[in-house]
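2024-03-11 09:14:02 INFO queue: dequeued item Cytoplasmic intermediate filament protein, len=608
2024-03-11 09:14:02 INFO validating residues
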Amino acid sequence: MSSQTKTKTTSVEGPSSTTKTTTTTYRTKSSNDGYSTTYRPMTTRRSAVSSRPAGGSMIQRSVNMSYNSMPMMSAGAYANVANLGITSVREGRDQEKKDMQDLNERLASYLEKVRFLEARNRKLADELDKLKSKWGKETTAVKTMYQTELDEARRLLDESEKGKAGLELQVTSQEEIIRELEDRLHDTEGELENQRMLVSRLNDQMSQLEGEINGLRRRNDTLEEEKKRDKAEIARLLSDNKRIRMDLDAESLALIDANNRCQTLGEEIEFMKAVHEQELKELSALICRDTTSENREFWKNEMGECLREIQDNYDQKLADLHTELESHYSTKLQEFRHGAAKQNMETTNAKEETKKFRSQLADLRHRIAELDGEKMRLESMLREQKSESDAIIRDLQDELAKYQKDLAACQAEMSAVMAEMQGLIDNKLSMELEIAAYRKLLEGEENRMGLSHVVSSMMSSSSSYDTSQMHEGDDDANLRISQVVKGEMSAKTTYQRSAKGPVSIQECASNGESITLENNGSRDENLSSWTIMRTVDGQERKCVLPRNATIPRRDKRTFICKGGERKSANDIECNIDSFGIGANITTKLTNPDGEEKASHVQRTQYQS
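2024-03-11 09:14:37 INFO prediction written
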């Protein structure tokens, strides 16, 4: 059985410090019956601390390796187990394997050279112990110095995360409340619109009713005019009737007078007849006293003739007068009867028309009263609806203003926390960039200086090699190499964002794995077929957003590269391997027409 353990520790001391530890274990067991292999890389957590000491920078690297061996196993079992272990390692730890291979290569080269320097290292053991004790104190001081700021930065970051989470919850709650208020406002507006439509319909109905009322009034006026005309006609007919009655009375009086005259004439005739008879009697007496029969006969004949003549004249006059009176009064009576019948007919018609007009007028007045009542009721309903809608709108506006005020306060607080968090993120990014720059610088220094420089600079760099024998399951060898290189470098990163619409670029990940877009508008934005153009240190990268790229209102979405880690269920994967990493990055968001809608510019300057 053979076992190999490697430990790599890197420490940087300067304006900001980083400690990185990587431990890799590799064991191989062999026997006569079979062979098995186990490859288990293990990486401990990484911590980053930002501080500003007065010293330079330091890198310390340690590698431990041990070997154990046991009897060999069969070739077939060895192949199966090796294939299984290699497949598992390739699937899970490709990056760690590359690091281990790089360290193994470096370790192999260092081992070959360190064996030649073993003798000299023994001579310098005392100086090495002194340097170790000195380095330990410096390391402890540096660790103590940076640990406080590291703990403070962690605490601030945790507090910022907690504050951000609380504010996000508050913002989410406020947004839910605002959405509910908006829904209520929308429902109220819909109800108000319905009420307005109802008011419009009622106004139309009122206009129609007013039109009907005006028509009925005009008809009433026409009927009133006709009634006036009928009244005038009735008055004329009544006047004619009165005049005719007066004429009839006059004619009746005249008839009565004529009858009286006729009766008087008749009485006078009777009286005259009686008088004449009396005279005749007296004449007869005289005649009787006359002795002459001829005289008596003569006077008798003469008197009879005169009386007959008088009687005939009287009868003729009386007959003529009677005939004239009868014809006159018959004509007058016929005229009166004809006029009276016509007048009675016209009066009856006028009465019927008047009665009908009165009935229509009563109906119209009743209808007008009903329409006036309906109009008053509708106006009352309209006033009530307006007052209720105004009260609801005022309440909603008050609640909306209150929630907007609370939201503005939360947003201001969140902006302050976000600004503080952005500062921490900027410090973190600067620290990561410094670490990357230090790593490149140190690797370049290692490649340039070589082992000879390490040996010649023993006062600032040292190496140690220890070997011990162990039994079953223990390490066969243990190797530790330590290097210290001092240097200093600073990086300054600036960001600039702009947007021409509701969609803006909120954040670009420093590792090039994701880009976060934010929608500040009041409606959802569909970004299908939109394009993200990135210029990374002069190299252009293009990514077309998928069809499901929709950002809800007042929300944000994170677009990750292909195969990237999803931090949320709403993250959208794009067809691009990486968005790119560099010092100078320009990110643009364009619509399908090629118009630029948002931009994000990152500039990083290094100073040594």
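2024-03-11 09:14:37 INFO annotate: Residues 210-393 form one domain.
2024-03-11 09:14:38 INFO item closed
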